[in-house]
Write a structure and sequence with these properties.
221 residues; alpha+beta; 2 domains; five-stranded antiparallel sheet; 5 helices; binds zinc ion
């Protein structure tokens, strides 16, 4: 009897698709170490596999590299990243001040490289810039965030502290975070940018458009 196919759920990374979907594993190939020279698995060794998945919605292929070690309890996955389609680094909208956007993009590039120390540090630097832009002047980042209490929503203050702590952990404490956890941090910043810059700019554009219509209506007799 043929073994049942391996299926997982994830957001399809193809921009034309981009929905949550089932994926079927079509092929799984070891690319390191070379299978010809070391065909057996050795305890404690690190392996890299190339997995090809097919999205159930758009039928396109997604290629992932997976790093894992062969431990006492069997294989243990250490990291995984998408190599096809070419992952597009995160960006913030043009309503966000340039210094904040630039730091965020640099951090987003580092999000491709485990163990994500520079991504953690970069996202921390991004929120420090957000705090300064919001008028915080205290010396440390912790004090800057506390300075903004009462001026920004409580949820946003909590998120700022969360990003700050992840940055500290990855850089100074050597605590390893998973790709998902670093992605969470990036998403918190995307949400902050939306609340602090994108939505106010959007409201202002709409108000201007309404005013323009009023002005034009007044001109016509
Ligand atoms: Zn798809």
């Amino acid at each position: 009897m043929a073994s049942s196919p391996i299926i997982k759920a994830r957001i399809c990374p193809h921009s034309e698709c981009g929905v949550g979907s089932g994926m079927t594993l079509r092929s799984d190939r070891r690319i390191h170490p070379d299978f010809q020279t070391s065909p057996s698995f050795l305890l404690g060794n690190a392996y890299i596999h190339e997995e090809a998945w097919q999205c159930h919605m758009c039928k396109r292929t997604i290629l992932e590299l997976v790093g894992w070690t062969y431990g006492e309890n069997g294989p243990e996955e250490c990291w995984r990243r998408t190599v096809w389609p070419d992952p597009v680094p995160r960006t913030l909208g043009s309503d966000v001040p340039e210094r904040i956007r630039n730091l965020f993009v640099e951090a987003a590039h580092a999000e491709r490289v485990p163990p994500y120390r520079l991504a953690g540090a970069g996202y921390r630097a991004t929120i420090e810039e957000i705090c300064k832009d919001q008028g915080a002047t205290a010396r440390t980042l912790m004090a800057k965030i506390d300075e903004l209490k009462g001026r920004l929503p409580d949820k946003l203050i909590d998120d700022l502290h969360e990003v700050r702590m992840v940055g500290n952990d990855t850089l100074h404490q050597g605590i390893a975070y998973s790709a998902d956890e670093i992605a969470d941090v990036a998403e918190m910043i995307e949400e902050m940018a939306l609340v602090l810059y994108v939505q106010p700019a959007e409201r202002q554009r709409k108000a201007q458009a309404r005013q323009q219509r009023r002005d034009e209506a007044r001109k016509t007799p």
